[in-house]
């Protein structure tokens, strides 16, 4: 994979297109179901942005090319470059929220914790769903308080809990965590800090010592942090990185003598772009995943055959098809489009308002049968979103890098939902009190 060449070409193309303009503008006119994309194709996190938004666009394009849209209604989109900066993400939101026909945006998918935090109140007031797949504010899982925010598949606390459960398995049982040391190396951002309280709580519950160490954005220099880890001598390091921070962490760990197979990367430290730049230092590294990489899934093969074979693919480097970020974008596309289908089944086969899309996400269910129909068996986990539960999943697998590819090395590992749900409700209810929000009644299934 020509990683550096790919990113530099994409960065140049995006820069030429304009930083806050519409890149690959597809949303012309007022028809169709509109997805404004707050993407980032330049900057230190371009690898994640190009892969994820590339996969998302490829899936939307597949639905249009293969099916003529959803029930005869085309999907349309445009991109607004944020460079992963909060202020630009907010500006992109303000530029697009009242555009495109009478119904406006169907949903926002910023793939940025900082931007998501800044948009929660805005999107809720404007009644537009805010999708934060695998990230975001954990207590937004409580749909009673956050009706328009959906941390689909996995929230950060679930991920932390599942990671501790996996480490317990590796040690021979959760009781073996007693007296052990775990270091958490986290990105110095709202995303990185999201799990600080839950790791503290899990340490108290299971009796291990946790040391949480911040790496300032973007993470190019980590020598001091890894020297501190060497002095600490933990059994495991949990890497909650993003972008350039991840390969730097792996290379620095090797330099300081820490075994890479005892580093557990989180869901934003699990891509090919995180390990390939680290070279041999990444071999043996383990990470969380909600979906595997690979092109063997029928839906990915269709994208290759019906989109890339016709020159319509979004990725410039075809070797990235089926990579972790690209497949996550496809998964995100599936979840957004399925919400469209569910909402149309309730409101009619037409363009939809943000309120109607919220109802679709609120009732999003993917069982094994539907996943198979979508050609995504093994790619997407079963999902059951409800009024009260906007995560809908909460399980992960673990994968290990062998120097050339990722290999799944565990079954599904669940989080401790019984422990987490009361904490989520405590946090969300405090937020509701602060903001004067009346909790939704989720005991009755009804349109919002």
Notes on the protein architecture:
This protein is an alpha/beta fold and 448 residues long. It folds into two domains: 3-154 and 293-386, Rossmann fold, CATH 3.40.50; 156-289 and 397-417, Response regulator (Rossmann fold), CATH 3.40.50.2300. It contains 15 helices and 15 strands. Strands 6, 7, 8, 9, 10, 13, 14 and 15 form an eight-stranded mixed β-sheet that branches. α10 (272-275) links the parallel β9 and β10. α2 (46-67) packs across α12, α3 runs parallel beside α4 and α12 packs across α13 (354-362). The protein is globular and about 60 Å long. The protein starts with a helix and ends in a 13-residue tail after the last helix. Mean pLDDT is 92; it is low at 1-25.
Please give the structural blueprint:
Elements: H1 3-17, E1 22-23, E2 33-37, H2 46-67, E3 75-80, H3 86-96, H4 113-126, E4 130-131, E5 149-150, H5 156-171, E6 181-187, H6 190-193, H7 196-206, E7 209-215, H8 223-232, E8 236-240, H9 245-255, E9 263-265, H10 272-275, E10 286-289, H11 298-306, H12 324-347, H13 354-362, E11 365-366, H14 368-373, E12 383-384, E13 395-401, E14 406-408, E15 413-414, H15 417-435
